[in-house]
Each structure stands twice: as structure tokens, then as C-alpha cells.
Write a structure and sequence with these properties.
Order of helices and strands: EHEHEHEHEHH
Protein name: Ribose 5-phosphate isomerase B
Bound molecules: D-ribose
Largest sheet: 5 strands, parallel
Number of domains: 1
Helix content: 40-55%
Shape: globular
CATH architecture: 3-Layer(aba) Sandwich
Organism: Listeria monocytogenes
Family: Belongs to the LacAB/RpiB family.
Strand content: 15-25%
Enzyme class: isomerase
Number of helices: 6
GO molecular function: ribose-5-phosphate isomerase activity
Length: 151
């Protein structure tokens, strides 16, 4: 599936990287919905991660991208939303592997961990790489089955 629209959010720790990723999205013609602060005052990441994740599960956007200082808080919060498979990625190998193997629909990045150049490469690869299915489908299905078994 070609990605044509993403939801993107950051907390205060990820504003600059969020803006740099948005420049990339604009340069390749991917539309976006943006959430998160313009000013550097502290904001809490959980609500932002959940807002983006709900956009994804409600199919208002194709994928989500989340940025905080480490990417960890955002990824933990996103993975609480039923139907979300969020990966915190800091290298290009994982960027394609997590699409091919895990069919991740949300990407988390740590703005205090990686620079804008690597982040752009990760975003590009993650957006362009297809899910392989096959032997991975049963594994991803086990995660979905567990989610479905919960109230
Ligand atoms: C905010 O200080 C920081 O905790 C947040 O950006 C993120 O790294 C949380 O996981």
C-alpha cells in the first residue's frame, strides 16, 4: 500500500525533529496531520501518542510517526492502542525489517538519540517498505489474537 497520509506528533523534546520530518514529507508529497507544540514548553507525550494512534486505527491516515526525547514513552503509549504495532527505530536495518516482519503502522523516533539525517533515512525506508506477510503473518496474527481476547 502506498502511504499518502500520515499523522505526526511530538512532545517538546521532539519539535525540531518533527519539523524536519515534515519538511521531508512535504518534499515527497505525502500529506500529514500534525499534533504537538510549537513552543518549547513541556507537554506530556501519552495523549499525543494516543491521538495519532487512534487516527491510524480509525483509518483517517495510513500511518503514524511519533517523536519524543527517546521515542520510548511515545512507543509505549502507542502500543496500548488496540490495533497499533509501533516500533521505536534508531537504525535503517530495523526500519525496513519492522515493516517487512511486524507490519508496524506507527514509527517512534528519539530526537535526543538520532540526528535529522538518520531520521529522514529511517522515515523514508519505513514509509516505502512493504509488509512481507508469509511466515510473519501467523506471528503478527498471534499479537492481534491476544488483543482481541482482551476486554
Ligand atoms: C520528556 O522529558 C521525555 O521524558 C520524553 O520526551 C520522552 O523521552 C519520554 O519517553
Amino acid at each position: 500500500m502506498t502511504v499518502s497520509k500520515v499523522a505526526i506528533a511530538s512532545d517538546h523534546g521532539g519539535i525540531e525533529l518533527r519539523k524536519s520530518i515534515i519538511s521531508y514529507l512535504e518534499s515527497v508529497g505525502i500529506s500529514y496531520e500534525e499534533f504537538g507544540p510549537e513552543a518549547p514548553e513541556s507537554v506530556d507525550y501519552p495523549g499525543l501518542a494516543i491521538t495519532v494512534s487512534e487516527k491510524v486505527v480509525n483509518q483517517e491516515v495510513d500511518r503514524g510517526i511519533l517523536v519524543c526525547g527517546t521515542g520510548i514513552g511515545m512507543s509505549i503509549a502507542a502500543n496500548k492502542v488496540k490495533g497499533i504495532r509501533c516500533a521505536l527505530v534508531g537504525d535503517t536495518f530495523s526500519a525496513h525489517a519492522t515493516r517487512e516482519h511486524n507490519d508496524t503502522n506507527v514509527l517512534a523516533l528519539g530526537a535526543r538519540v538520532i540526528g535529522p539525517g538518520l531520521a529522514e533515512d529511517i522515515v523514508k525506508i519505513w514509509l516505502e517498505t512493504a509488509y512481507e506477510g508469509g511466515r510473519h503473518a501467523n506471528r503478527v496474527g498471534q499479537i492481534t489474537a491476544y488483543e482481541d481476547s482482551q476486554a
